[in-house]
Amino acid sequence: KTHKITLIPGDGIGPEVSSAVVSILEAAGAATGVRFEWHRHLAGAEAFEKTREYIPKELYESIEENRVALKGPVTTPVGGGFASINVTLRKKFELFANFRPVKNLPGLKTKYPDVDLIIVRENMEDLYAGLEHEVVPGVVQALKVITSKGSTRIAKFAFDYARKHGRKKVHAIHKANIMKLSDGLFLRCCRDVSLGFPEVSYHEHIVDNACMQLVMNPYQYDVLLTENLYGDILSDLCSAFVGGLGLVPGANLGTECAIFEAVHGSAPDIAGKDMANPTALLQSAVLMLHHINEPETAERVQAGLEQVYREGKVLTKDVGGTSGTKAFADAVLKAMEAP
Ligand code: NAI
Ligand code: MG
Fold it and tell me: What is the fold of 111-242?
């Protein structure tokens, strides 16, 4: 079977990690009778140089047609420049749920063993709606948009996931003590949805306390249900439990399309140096393989990856190793070949 997949290599470490991932998927596919047709497209500054568009029309059309994309990180300028490519794509394709499983890899020692939690982040609203304006010089307003439709939809997603996968608890993360109307609405929707899921226990934590609770004892959490901004921040925090941003995958999910990408950004500090850990994007690709209903290929990749971590001989610098991106990818390829 052949799958057409839109590939956005991205900026910074994006091209390095995505080429590692593509080579591993190609090999796993060849061994399991699955073929990939990669439709490669630029986005962001590089796309603008070539096409005068930050998100070229061809990229939109490609995602519309294929409905599945694998995406490397894209650099977003701080301050001025252009609107975030990520935010724009998520809005355009109504990718309302950002799904981020945080789980230790076997063999990789971190300060927190056996963490297994899921972040379910609302992906289209909140302060990320991008509605900012200068009222008068020296005064800027940013509008936080929370809707009952968006909040109910993400809460349903979280609870449905919990029910389907035997997860016991959902914690809604909020700051409704201060943002009484916006976070208040989010919470009310979460509560309403929770009533339909009596087998999943429902809790509420204020976001600043949740940061402390997480660092003290992440094991008390199971599914974290958050608005857009809190979910963004908590994702990076939680990645540290399992070894950092080099590891944690993500999926932007809608009803029509899905874009799979790591939690991390373009990591300009290590870009082009063969230092990036491709694990986060690789695990995102594993989520993608499950999404396109190729579990055998997914398991082959995951098993190879876990084998490399279990052996612990070929690891990238971020997780205490001395190997480069390419050597790590080669080790995964080799582990997948072993019977
Ligand atoms: P970052 O996630 O790129 O990097 C943070 C730290 O983690 C850096 O020290 C980096 O070296 C390290 N790191 C990240 N990924 C790694 C990997 N795979 N292997 C090893 N180390 C890794 O965050 P930063 O520096 O704040 O953002 C850089 C750019 O990325 C910004 O322009 C930002 O807007 C963009 N960004 C894009 C995202 C996306 O496209 N989905 C998500 C987050 C940020
Ligand atoms: Mg982020």
Answer: Isopropylmalate Dehydrogenase (3.40.718)
Query: Is 236 among the residues known to form the active site?
Result: yes
pLDDT in tens, 153-199: 999 999 999 999 999 999 999 999 999 999 999 999 999 999 999 99
- Assess whether 114 carries a catalytic annotation: no
**Does the C-beta of 76 come closer than 6 Å to ligand 1?**
yes
Q: Whose CA is nearest to atom 12 of ligand 1?
A: 267
pLDDT score, position 78:
85
d(CA 333, CA 192): 47
Q: Which of 54, 232, 309, 318 is catalytic?
A: 232
Map residue 172 onto helix, strand or coil: strand
Two domains, one topology: 1-96+246-339 and 111-242 = yes
Asked if residues 313 and 56 have their Cβ atoms less than 8 Å apart, the reply is no
Residue 206 tokens read as: 């204020």
Is 316:293 a contact under the CB 8 Å cutoff?
no
Query: What is the assigned CATH class of domain 1-96+246-339?
Result: alpha beta
Strand locations in 62-184 (E): 68-71, 97-103, 116-122, 132-136, 139-142, 169-174
Cα 229 from Cα 173, distance rounded (Å): 11
CA of 73 to the centre of ligand 1 (A): 7
User: Contact at 8 Å (CB) between 127 and 182?
Assistant: no
| Interface ipTM above 0.95 | yes
Distance 221 CA to ligand 2 centre (A): 20
Q: Given the CA of residue 17, which atom of ligand 1 is nearest to it?
A: 18
Task: Give Cβ neighbours of residue 137 (< 8 Å, ≥ 6 apart).
Answer: none
Q: Is 175 a catalytic residue?
A: yes
**Distance between CA 271 and CA 97 in Å, rounded?**
29
pTM above 0.90, yes or no: yes
Of 54, 161, 175, 309, which residue is the catalytic one? 175
Atom 1 in ligand 1: which residue has the minimum CA distance? 265
Q: What is the residue extent of each domain of the chain?
A: 1-96+246-339, 111-242
Q: For 139-233, where are the E strands, in sequence order?
A: 139-142, 169-174, 201-206, 223-226
